[in-house]
Structure to design on (218 residues):
């Protein structure tokens, strides 16, 4: 940085000018003019010397000020760079920590989803097995019930036919065989129809329940 008001440094004070010799008049009285001029010249020289010294000191102060201002600017610039680097590292550390936290949360959620999916699959398999077992048991029960009912109907029909035959024979012998036979036939047909209807209703209900169970398993 250029120094303002720079002047030429005075290396050393100039030599004193030759002092005039005092003039001694013939009367023997010393003229004080020469002493006065000598003192004035010395005072002026002293002022010049002090001025040069002050100017030299001001130049030195300006040089030192400029030098330390440059050093201070360098220190400040370095401090700014160090602060920027530290701030960048802090932000990077925070970003990394947040990224790891989010990754951990995603991993935990993925693990929870996998566990829930596995649990749901296990429950679905168990429910399907239960539905299949229940449907098979119901089918077996319906088939057994149908077979038992059919056998019961056959036995009942044979029994009724035998009874009707006996009744017809007795009534035929007693008279009015034809009317009694017709009425007995109607009665036995009504009973058989009622029993068959009940069996078919039971079979239909069992098939309906089996259908809904199989549908619910899918």
């Amino acid at each position: 940085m250029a120094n303002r008001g720079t002047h030429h440094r005075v290396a050393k004070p100039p030599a004193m000018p030759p002092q005039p010799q005092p003039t001694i008049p013939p009367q023997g009285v010393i003229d004080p003019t020469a002493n006065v001029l000598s003192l004035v010249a010395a005072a002026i020289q002293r002022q010049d010397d002090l001025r040069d010294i002050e100017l030299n000191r001001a130049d030195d102060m300006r040089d030192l000020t400029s030098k330390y201002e440059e050093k201070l600017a360098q220190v400040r610039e370095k401090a700014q760079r160090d602060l920027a680097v530290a701030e960048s590292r802090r932000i990077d550390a925070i970003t990394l920590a947040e990224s790891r936290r989010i990754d951990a949360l995603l991993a935990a959620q993925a693990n929870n989803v996998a566990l829930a999916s596995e649990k749901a699959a296990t429950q679905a398999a168990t429910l399907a097995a239960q539905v299949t077992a229940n449907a098979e048991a119901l089918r077996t029960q319906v088939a057994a019930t149908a077979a038992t009912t059919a056998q019961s109907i056959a036995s009942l029909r044979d029994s009724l036919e035998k009874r009707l035959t006996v009744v017809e024979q007795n009534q035929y012998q007693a008279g009015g065989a034809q009317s009694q036979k017709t009425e007995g036939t109607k009665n036995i047909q009504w009973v058989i129809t009622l029993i068959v209807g009940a069996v078919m209703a039971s079979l239909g209900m069992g098939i309906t329940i089996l259908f809904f169970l199989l549908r619910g398993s899918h």
